[in-house]
Model the fold of this input.
Amino acid sequence: MYNTLLTHLENGILTITINRPEKLNALNKEVFNDLDGVMDEVYTHKEIKTVIITGAGTKAFVAGADITEFAGLNKEEAKKLAKRGQDVFFKIENSPKPVVAAVNGFALGGGCELAMACHFRICSDNAKFGQPEVNLGLIPGYGGTQRLTQLVGKGKSMELQMTAQLMDAAEALQWKLVNHVTTQEQLLTKTTEVLQTIQTKAPIAISKIIECINIAVVSDSAYTNGTTGYDKEVECFGECFTTSDMKEGTSAFVEKRKPQFKGE
Ligand code: COA
Done:
């Protein structure tokens, strides 16, 4: 269905694989269109509970925006390209269902930005992260200046983006860019295990966790509508009390049994 993506749905987990291995899965216009389309499916299809984004092959998650598409762009066209990338990545970041990046190699430029737009990241021990745009006379355009700063802090973000130096998996873990490091063979197994745990919890509560945590870090007022994270938390806490899952969860605790959540 998608030219540049492979998709596989199993036990509620949709695995999206960016599939341009001969170009190290670089993000061209078609990949963005496909990601946009598949995220619409994630938002609307009930059978999709959680999502993994990974890259085809053993070398790269995504080695960046497709640099060949930059040739000949004027200022306005370049701004449009950045806005398009940001919007697709906001769609991932604001997904009501958890999206985890399983980073299986190079995550550079737009690839690092894609991984950072996911709710969290797990990587294999061959992963390499970086924003090397200054090597091209550029800066990140798909949210990298903002999200890398949120994740690793201002000083490290400045240094990484000014020097174009790459971080290996151990450093990425140390700087909290990733939550876990595995072998290449174990990457999808570990990611699946974490998502299976999440899938035993109440889906509406999970979607509200995403909304509240995103407000704490998303600075774009178009997405926060001027609401503070604390206001949002109060509102979402209240809304949880209208769900049958909340009644089920609290009853199950009192009755000393496992809750059966329905996403209602
Ligand atoms: N855009 C377009 N094509 C890319 C690409 C990108 N971001 N990254 C890799 N490719 C292509 C290469 O051009 C090459 O294509 P070819 O075989 O038709 O020549 C193919 O993918 C394999 O890449 P190659 O450079 O030969 O692999 P390598 O192992 O020698 O180097 C990297 C790997 C990741 C270090 C190197 O590809 C690289 O530096 N890529 C660009 C990273 C970058 O600057 N990203 C930020 C972009 S904003």
